[in-house]
Amino acid sequence: MVSRFGSSRRNINHCIDEITHLMISVLFVDDEPVLVDIGRMFLERAGDFSVTGVLSGREAVTLLKENAYDVIISDYQMPGMNGIELLRFVREQCGDIPFILFTGRGDEAVAGDAVNRGVDFYVQKGGDPKLQFADIAHKIETAVERRRALLAIKASEERFHDIINFLPDATFAINTEGIIIAWNREIERITGTRAQDMIGRGAYAHAVPFYGSRRPMIADLLLHPDPATEQVYPSLHREESIITAEGVLYIHEKRHYFLARASFLYQHGIITGAIESLRDITRQKESEEKLMRIIDHLPLGLQIFRIEKDGRLICSGGNPAAEEMGGVGGRCAPGRSLEEVFPDDDGKIAAICRKIAMEGGRDCMDNVGLPVDGSIKRYNIRMFQIDPGEVALLYV
Asked: How would CATH label the architecture of 168-285?
């Protein structure tokens, strides 16, 4: 349980600072003053321990309200507040500070109760004090190292969730079983669904705010490929350990375009889940659609070519005016190469276009003859890059 003496995150950071110090602070609680003195002497000689001794559970509680310790060692049988009652207080108010219970002979029955309440170790009194406190010193170091590892994991999880929360894109993460482990502020904003209502849910619950039903999203397809389901995403693209896809979603009855991207989550080199970010590209898409409407109504012919892996420039489309201008569009049907469109120019236009597609810039060629219905029609051609790897040809 989180202490009332501070927030959980502040406690975690404070504890990490403390346990990384060279000296380990020990609170030793026992109603026998001689044993407290002996314990302090042996422990401080045995290792890098700073031991504070008190003679009752009540005194321990007072110190714990004002100070932080790396580990607590407590006797069981003490007047006023016994070791189990002190352990209960520590777990309720101070979190997971390592706790070692020191019991006398005949108190073995309390061990089970102590374990149930979260004791780290229990040690029976008696025998050679030097050997006994050497054993306790070892248990202290073991408990502190174990807590250090747990706090490091918690701190790592805190950093992970902080990073996720402040990402500008709507982002969620699932583990390998499909359970939601992160749901950031931006995804809360656009869906109106709170993280506290989503974290821990499975069975494709993360899809409901977007689709209104449970169905795989691309994070699920990354973890569990399903070719049939992937066909639902015509723009889905796999590249090594990343999937990207574009799609239209209706949120609060309004159409949104999203670019989704999913990648694996790893821990120590092992896949532990997947994270998916959705970028709202609605404005971009609306601008593209507006531009395409303008292009479709241009009185000038326009064709677009994309450079392929083999270096060829392949037509990806054009506007209606290109067809009207003497059949240029017909020759430039999607899938045809630039060389097929300009078969008689010795590859000059193709060379210029390839350079523009790869390096950018613009160029022009005037009075280019194209055979149309048995005659030659001449055009001035303007060439310019529209995207890396793509070139547009404008016929004037």
From this structure: 2-Layer Sandwich (3.30)
